[in-house]
Design goal:
Elements: H1 7-20, H2 25-29, H3 35-42, H4 50-60, H5 64-69, H6 75-91, H7 95-112, H8 115-132, H9 135-149, H10 154-170, H11 174-190, H12 196-212, H13 216-229, H14 236-252, H15 256-273, H16 276-292, H17 296-312, H18 316-332, H19 336-347, H20 356-372, H21 376-393, H22 396-412, H23 416-430
Length: 447
């Protein structure tokens, strides 16, 4: 039951409700109480018992909760229903409309002191900001959601923690994103709070930063744990997200058929749930899979489908990231001019603080295109920019590949010592993927 307001607040509220209804203190009091008691209560000099407040609520024709807390009857239930509607709006890709809904709901929850609903609205606003690529705003909303939940059990805070970790990951802060995921996983497993939904959310979320950091073994382990947890989870959207993330580790291990099957499962679930942005992400991942397998025409088709779906929903950051993948496929299909135009357009929307890894990818690809055109000066400029972005992000796998490209270019232009330095840097990042930037791997959950 909601906590009651203090005597003075309740007293003023009773007086206001009584006056609005044109009742005297005697009419409100009878038959169980006296007018003097009502007068004392309205003056805030007595803490009314629950039976007294229920009697007064019945005489006033309102719910007990409205007298005790000032909240209209069923307000919390109504807010939760409308939060679900806002979540459904966001799922269809209408992030701006959903943000307007969440803002109204947050104001109502604030007015009536409904903490759980405040946290849910802030979480929704964080997800909207994430989809629109406003990473700083997203981080602030997720942090505020965590703060509202305060001392709530950790599983309840996991969605906000996961959102915060993803916003750091998208900003290129891979190490910190891994730290947030791993420390939360360790706490859940260490303290025995084995909530399957919370664990699956975290193991699924940590796969992408692991992969970008070159910690492929850890990514594969997280995927294995996620697959084992999936049968215990009732939320189909969460299971679909797991299948999409796990596919990335399968691709890295050359398990193309399994990855394709996993993506097909995810896409079917998203279609059933009508979650358009996540469905677009499935097309994106399948495009990546086909590109890795050399099926460039199919890859281009999937990536263009993802691009159309994401840009239609104004998911700016994700659209830019897909366009980098698409440009790579276009270049490999001999459409370098089209790829170059797309990449220059992408770089106008990305920055070191917003999509650092894909920004580096764009510079890397522009460097390759410049090398093909015998413009070594421009190629070197793009490689160096990409190197700076990747070093800051700690994306070890991509760093090693870039160092090889830069070393080859420097060697061809006669700068052997500089080329050796580049190769050494690359080898340093490939020596032990992930071990120099990560602590012990998270414990295995009870399965």
């Amino acid at each position: 039951m909601a906590e009651r307001d203090g005597p003075e607040v309740i007293g003023r509220r009773v007086q206001q409700l009584r006056t609005e209804r044109g009742l005297t203190q005697k009419q409100l009091a009878e038959p169980a109480y006296t007018p003097a008691y009502i007068s004392t209560l309205e003056a805030g000099r007595v803490r009314a018992s629950e039976p007294a407040l229920r009697h007064i609520a019945e005489r006033l024709g309102v719910a007990y909760e409205e007298v005790a807390t000032g909240r209209p009857a069923h307000l919390a239930t109504d807010l939760r229903l409308r939060l679900t509607d806002a979540q459904r709006t966001l799922a269809t890709g209408e992030a701006e409309v959903a943000a307007e809904q969440y803002t109204v709901l947050l104001a109502e929850a604030d007015t009536h002191g409904l903490v759980a609903e405040q946290a849910a609205a802030l979480l929704g606003l964080g997800e909207c900001a994430l989809e629109n690529g406003n990473l700083e705003t997203a981080r602030e909303r997720f942090e505020a959601s965590e703060q509202r939940l305060g001392d709530a059990p950790l599983p309840q805070r996991v969605p906000a923690l996961r959102g915060r970790a993803v916003s750091h990951y998208l900003a290129g802060e891979l190490r910190y994103a891994c730290y947030l995921f791993e420390s939360t996983l360790d706490e859940l497993n260490r303290t025995g709070m084995h909530d399957p939904d919370a664990l699956l959310l975290l193991y699924t979320g940590v796969i992408a930063p692991y992969m970008d950091m070159g910690a492929h073994a850890r990514a594969a382990q997280a995927a294995e744990f996620a697959l084992a947890l999936a049968p215990q989870v009732g939320d189909p959207a969460l299971v679909a997200r797991m299948h999409r993330s796990v596919a990335r580790t399968m691709i890295a291990e050359g398990r193309i058929a399994e990855a394709d099957a996993s993506l097909a499962k995810a896409a079917e679930l998203y279609r059933q749930l009508q979650i358009r942005t996540e469905l677009a992400n499935c097309h994106w991942m399948r495009g990546y899979l086909y590109a890795q397998n050399g099926e460039l025409e199919r890859a281009e088709g999937e990536l263009r489908e993802a691009q159309v779906m994401l840009s239609a929903k104004r998911a700016a950051l994700y659209t830019s990231q897909v366009n980098v993948e698409l440009a790579d496929v276009l270049h490999r299909r001999g459409k370098s001019a089209e790829a170059s135009v797309l990449l220059h357009e992408v770089l106008g929307h990305l920055s070191p603080e917003r999509g650092a890894v894909h920004s580096a990818g764009a510079h890397r690809l522009l460097g390759i295109i410049a090398e093909d055109a015998r413009d070594t000066e421009t190629a070197e400029e793009h490689y160096v920019r990409a190197l700076s972005l990747l070093e800051r992000a700690g994306a070890a796998g991509d760093l090693a590949d870039l160092c090889r490209l830069l070393g080859d270019l420097l060697r061809r232009t006669g700068r052997v010592e500089a080329a050796l330095d580049a190769y050494r840097t690359g080898l340093g990042h490939r020596t032990a993927p992930g071990t120099t930037t990560l602590g012990p791997a998270p414990a295995q959950p009870p399965l």
